[in-house]
Amino acid sequence: MAKYQKLVEPFKIGNVELRNRFVMLPMTIEKVDNYHVTDDLVDFYEQRAKGHAGLIEIGSCYVCDCFGTEPKYHTTTGACGCWDDEFIPGFQRIAEVCHKHGSKVAAQLQLCYEWRASGDDPLLSYAPSKDVPSGPFVGMPEREYTKEEIAEVVKQPARGSNRKPQKRGKSASNGIIVKGESNSGLLVRLAHCCNPVTGDDIVGFITRGRGVSVHRANCPNVKGLMEHPERMIEVEWDGAADTLFQVEIVVECLDRMGLLKDVTIAIGDAGGNILSAATSTNREGIATLRFMVEISDASGLDPLLASISSVDSVYDARRLMPGEGGAQLKRRV
Fold first, then answer.
1. Disulfide-capable partner of 243 in 42, 113, 171, 277 (CB 3.0 to 4.6 Å)?
2. How far apart are CA 145 and CA 195, in angstroms?
3. CA quadruple 69, 70, 71, 77: dihedral positive or negative?
């Protein structure tokens, strides 16, 4: 045992003291919800802390804006986001439970790999050398940087890749009025952790350099944001704005041939525009369909759900509530 004694002795990395030399290397696992930390992910890391790991590294934390830029980055499912203040409460939860059991926490910061010299060039995965894989999720690079391109990368802003801020809807303020402020030129974003739509109770949070982030009042992340009351700000819906909103829908049903087609038709008939879809079926033949749908306001939600519920073999259709990640979806009986 004396040979391995150093492994269990406390030591320091700079000013950070670790209780031993056992490190959990970063792992990217399917326990996030749209890049946000979930209860499952918090529990996953807490169990490792209970196992006396000295240092726990959170895997694949993207510093690139995977929501508000176009074209979209190529990313891996299961990665956490850390490019915006709205992700802070989730990381705080992981840190709190790990610190409670004596473990320290670090994050594997990750850049997306695509790049292009200008908005007119194709978006490709680059690396300093074509002989070196650019990453486990992109595979071998498609192109090798030239010296001139490296110089161009250095000159580009940290936002990277000549992507442009993505515009959603017809209102630059996303249909939001920030009380006491002029909305002219003010960046206002709807938080992707809860996707508020017109009619929801909402709160505003002043981010660092990214304008005002608007959350549903019952969003789990709001509790953490309210620890900074000086950055909370009153917001309300602008009834005169012509804006589209995203809402996440989960549908549970008995699997059958043609099910997905019938549900997508029902969504379209109710005026919804499907932005993304994910499906899964368990061994019991229960299918879970998850859609990101664009609607005009909350008044269109009930007709949308009613239209989906009328489809044969569907027994539940509902809006996905804040914090209810895919791993937490339960069949209602």
1. 171
2. 38
3. positive
